[in-house]
Specification:
homodimer; mainly alpha; 3-stranded antiparallel beta sheet; 3 strands; 74% helix; 5% strand; DNA-binding
DNA sequence: CTCCCGTATTTTGGATCCAATATTGAAAAT
DNA sequence: ATTTTCAATATTGGATCCAAAATACGGGAG
């Protein structure tokens, strides 16, 4: 038997539940990049059979979060340096488009939501809560991208973020990085309030470049 | 028992076999956009159980080729006019990047492969073989994109092509379109041989715009 | 005649079971 | 000691079976 609140949150199918759990486990780093995924053990841990687990894994394979070899199984995907640079380059292209489309459509309500998201980021940073900050940061950016009114574009960007989330958490471990992120967000918000797409794009590009510069060394380990 | 040739072609797992078959069925239009997918019937038709079929469907869901609703099942995805424009806009961004990266890296062997691909396109066009022309056209473009040395970018572009393939086949039904495609490919090849990224990008943009202009009316049906 | 409700049927979701493949380890041959 | 082979084990792949949900259908009330 499940408690009502639990039942409300839990997705209506086991595959969706497992998908969410797996995504979290990978993007938070609880499942390390490169680690093989033992279906039996994972299924038991999540209290489901292997069937919905395998469906969830196929989904993640499509998104590039796990790799698959026939008859050998799934592994958490690893990122090479080239992969990292490629992902960030593609993000640059897609996110610029999203921002340029979003800026003329921004409503006051949108700006308020962005402010609220930024507050969450700053609160998490002040508390030194790294996972919370990573989550809030993501909400901040996705809120903006969603304003572009291009759902497929937003989805692509999301999956690109997913592939590097496991590494991004490390980035927020550093207090200096946390502070810089906040400043850069404020600059972005400022540009958005002034409806300057060019400036918003520029500040976000700088923001991204800082992240990739910090991330690169971590990939050699 | 399987014949040796058949065994060699057929993927090592049923899920991969089904994935290929489904992809073909959807992109060639044998499974119509919007059509619900009856798992039992399809599984029997492909001579497999529902388990590998469902794994393949999850993969296609991730790529956006089918839609899924819990407890209701899968349908072949349909494209709205907005979807079409969005997909082509994203393609424009990503393909421009791919071409600009590819041009300085193009070897004579690459150009020879592109020429060969173009020959296939023209042969299929002369024969009036629409599916063959669609396939050859795809090979032509992907050959170029693969030269960029950005595998993730190429994969993204491929999945974007997949989502519109079902409609693109109609495009080649028209003889005028077939002829124009050939001309535009030749212009592109010319630009590539002269190592002019700008011109290649321009011709490909024109090429794409023609396609989307022809495709738009078809989406109202 | 229309609408609503309850039952029958279809279809999907998931668990278990068996088969096929890969991996591991130990014994034997060089 | 090293390598090779083969058997034992672990793990994945797939088929069948059962449960749960949605859809379709038919009867009754208004």
């Amino acid at each position: 038997m499940m408690s009502p609140e639990e039942a409300r949150r839990r997705p209506p199918t086991a595959q969706q539940f497992v998908l969410g759990e797996l995504r979290r486990a990978i993007t938070t780093g609880r499942l390390r990049p490169g680690a093989p995924i033992r279906q039996d053990a994972l299924a038991e841990e999540l209290q489901v059979s292997r069937v919905p687990l395998r469906e969830a894994l196929k989904m993640l394979e499509g998104e590039g979060l796990v790799t698959y070899q026939a008859h050998k199984g799934y592994c958490v995907a690893t990122l090479s340096l080239d992969d990292l640079r490629e992902v960030y380059r593609i993000r640059e292209l897609l996110e610029e488009e999203a921002v340029r489309r979003a800026v003329p459509l921004l409503t006051d309500a949108d700006l308020a939501r962005l402010d609220a998201a930024q507050d969450d980021v700053e609160r998490a940073a002040a508390a030194g809560d790294v996972p919370a900050m990573a989550a809030a940061n993501r909400v901040f950016h996705m809120t903006l991208f969603d304003c572009a009114g291009m759902p497929r574009l937003a989805r692509l960007i999301r999956t690109l973020w997913d592939t590097t989330d496991a590494y991004r958490s490390m980035y927020y471990g550093d207090a200096g990085n946390r502070e810089r992120v906040i400043k850069e967000h404020r600059a972005t918000l400022d540009a958005l309030r002034r409806r300057s797409a060019d400036e918003a794009v520029t500040t976000l590009n700088v923001h991204r470049d800082h992240a990739v510069a910090e991330l690169e060394p971590l990939l050699h380990a």
